[in-house]
Write a structure and sequence with these properties.
The chain is built from 17 helices and 13 strands. It is of the alpha/beta class. The chain is globular.
């Protein structure tokens, strides 16, 4: 089991709150992490039909069987149980009584908001980050664009292999074929989670919708166009997209509010949180095919955004990521807000640095009246260097 960055954060939260909630996509390692973090807790899965029936029909009896702290897996399966958990934690006043995990964030968060507000810490676990896969410390968000990272540790896999494989733990733990495992993962997600969350009658249409979203990775979100191409209404497209967000499959990067007296784009940009799943949805069948594919740049950009999202969520922080684009087409791929500082980050999949890689950063820095930075660029090369006042990070250092 690879050590997860979230582990100490999870334990600290259990010392401070009576309930800790751990959400994330299916198969991101929530159950494994919870059981490693709290080996003395009782474990019960509400995926088990018998346990679920017991919790549903006799919630007091179900909870009374536990004489020590408990991990309740897939807790959203019995939403009525949360009111009884509230009564129990209020009566005891002890921290760390319940660890609730769930892969359907939308259902889980709705229930927590109603019953456990102020009593529960909420943490999110995404698939493995590069730092976790290679067993090193993650790149400090506070240092991005300001300080050079430690010397890179050699990485055996190439960039294309990394993008193609993605970060789901089971693929790495058991060295499985990414495409075979992701095909089964996707099929289970659509046939199970989508049915439960949306009661979609036409799963084929929803599958087309996900594929169309994959083809729009890194682009401005146009729900009207997306709905038209899929043959659904704009409200339906918005509702379906919210399910992809709640399932931690996609991330919407919002435009930054600072305008510098410029007219700004107001639509978010769409990214997938696992590059392996994205390549599967794009029907890319090998790392070598990805190398020459037209979507290579978009897949790499999605990978960088997902790594930055993971670096925040796995420390129990909000991502605080945005992008910037004005009506004239000037753009910076990512703006990172960190401690009152805004750091522009450009993303390029090329392996060799070129002068035009820095043009968007320089334009933004002039508008922000910060010609000396800080600023960063993430590219597909293997060396991290400082150039033109910008720290250019190898993808390996994320």
């Amino acid at each position: 089991m690879l050590r997860r960055t979230l582990l100490p954060v999870l334990r600290q939260a259990a010392d401070q709150y009576p309930v800790v909630t751990l959400t994330g996509p299916r198969q991101s390692g929530k159950t494994t992490l919870s059981r490693i973090a709290f080996p003395d807790h009782t474990y019960a899965s509400l995926e088990d039909p018998d346990q679920r029936e017991f919790a549903t029909t006799d919630p007091r009896g179900f909870l009374s069987q536990f004489d020590r702290p408990v991990i309740l897996d897939e807790a959203q399966r019995v939403p009525d149980l949360f009111s009884y958990i509230q009564t129990r934690v209020d009566a005891s006043g002890q921290s760390g009584q319940f660890v609730l995990t769930g892969s359907q964030s939308f259902l889980l968060m709705n229930t927590i908001t109603q019953s456990l507000a102020g009593r529960a810490a909420v943490l999110h676990l995404l698939p493995l980050s590069q730092a976790e896969i290679h067993e090193r410390s993650p790149l400090s968000r506070e240092s991005i664009g300001q300080h050079m990272p430690p010397a890179s540790v050699p990485v055996e896999s190439s960039l294309m292999d990394t993008l193609f494989t993605g970060g789901y733990p089971r693929i790495h733990d058991r060295r499985l074929s990414p495409q075979e495992w992701l095909a089964n993962y996707y099929r289970t997600y659509v046939e199970r989670d989508v049915r439960e969350l949306l009661n979609v009658g036409d799963l084929e249409a929803f599958g087309r919708f996900i594929g169309l979203c994959a083809g729009r990775t890194g682009q401005l979100l146009n729900l009207s166009s997306l709905g038209n191409d899929c043959g659904i209404s704009q409200p339906t497209a918005r509702r379906w997209l919210s399910v992809l967000e709640a399932s931690f499959l996609v991330f919407l990067l919002r435009p930054h509010h600072g305008n510098f007296n410029k007219r700004l784009v107001k639509s978010p940009k769409l990214y997938f949180l696992d590059s392996g799943l994205l390549t599967y949805l794009l029907r890319i069948r090998s790392p070598s095919e990805l190398l020459t594919h037209s979507a290579r740049g978009a897949v790499f950009e999605s990978f960088v955004v997902s790594e930055l999202v993971k670096s925040a969520l796995h420390k129990g922080q909000e991502p605080d990521l945005y992008f910037w684009r004005d009506s004239s087409g000037h753009e910076v791929d990512i703006l990172l807000e960190q401690g009152g500082e805004i750091v522009p980050i450009e993303v390029k999949s090329g392996e060799t640095l070129a002068d035009d890689f820095f043009s968007g950063l320089k334009y933004w820095l002039r508008l922000a009246q910060k010609p000396a930075g800080p600023a960063a660029l993430v590219y597909g090369g293997t060396q991290t260097i400082r150039r033109s006042g910008v720290i250019s990070y190898s993808w390996r250092d994320l």
